[in-house]
Design a protein that fits this description.
By secondary structure, the protein is α/β, with parallel strands linked by helices. The protein is about 30% helix and about 25% strand. It has helices at about 45-55, 80-90, 100-105, 110-120, 125-140, 160-170, 190-205, 215-220, 240-245, 250-255; strands at about 5-15, 20-30, 35-40, 65-70, 75, 95, 175-180, 210-215, 225-230, 235-240, 310, 315.
Amino acid sequence: MPTLLEVKDLETQFFTQDGVVRAVNGISYSLNEGETLGIVGESGSGKSVGVMSLIRLIPSPPGKIVGGQVLFDGQDLLKLNDDEIRSIRGNKIAMIFQDPMTSLNPVLTIGRQIGEALELHLGMDKQQARERTIELLELVGIPSAKDRLNNYPHQFSGGMRQRVMIAMGLSCNPQLLIADEPTTALDVTIQAQIVDLVKRLRDEIGMAIIWITHDLGVVAGLANRVIVMYAGCIVEEAPVKELYQNPRHPYTLGLLGSLPRLDADRPEKLNSIEGLPPDLINYPKGCPFYARCNYRIDICAHEAPPLKTVGVGHKAACHVDISVAQPTTEHPYQEA
């Protein structure tokens, strides 16, 4: 499949009173047309900042994209002027945020908010936009869509608000939909409904998706490929089945070890990853996972491992082959 998006050595930093926060540190990846890419990692790993950098939504100041390229359909999004990037946002690239209540305008009706994008990007008149808005709300499963056009965000439940956000994201038939933890604030039943909805819409419309989450369970049923981020770096990238069957980075191994399993003969104790992520202002010289890793060796303390190929479509940033190595320490964590 043709490549839709190519990210090369993307770096984003925040300049604060305490120092420079290195939020995203030279990440590179690509996305094909129609593909679903999952990006996972704990809070503060750079997942959201990384994708918000793609469409230049980083608040400046204090944030700044200090290096790299974002090639979308052959053009570098980081070199476009404000009007040019605005014509792509919401049109060719749409984004769904974590909390729909803070993303929707509380004093505008749902119909007005969706219709505005249709009028702005597709040049529809008010009647055309109204009809298309009803279609979109029905598409995402809002009952009695026609009667709800004049409702305000507070008149919808959390799951319904997220469906409205998806309708808004799909309004201009984007080539790429970015979903930033869209199910985090919802209960498990509604989460499953939203994931099924996105899968169905993806298959019908054929768009590419970047799905950001800290929940590896959600990614398993949705993504074709997964990127694991830690401390602003990509530490592993693999097809989804390969990542679960053959993790090659200690951090990925730790994430998978903290998931409950349904195929175990008896309930097993879940493992936790000891310690905390590194301080992104005083960034470590070596591997960012060094302080928490129980496979570490001497070189890890002073030399950051490159992301290298370890299998077909599989890359990992680790000096140690954990598929054959034994853990060196049980509880390695040391306070910096």
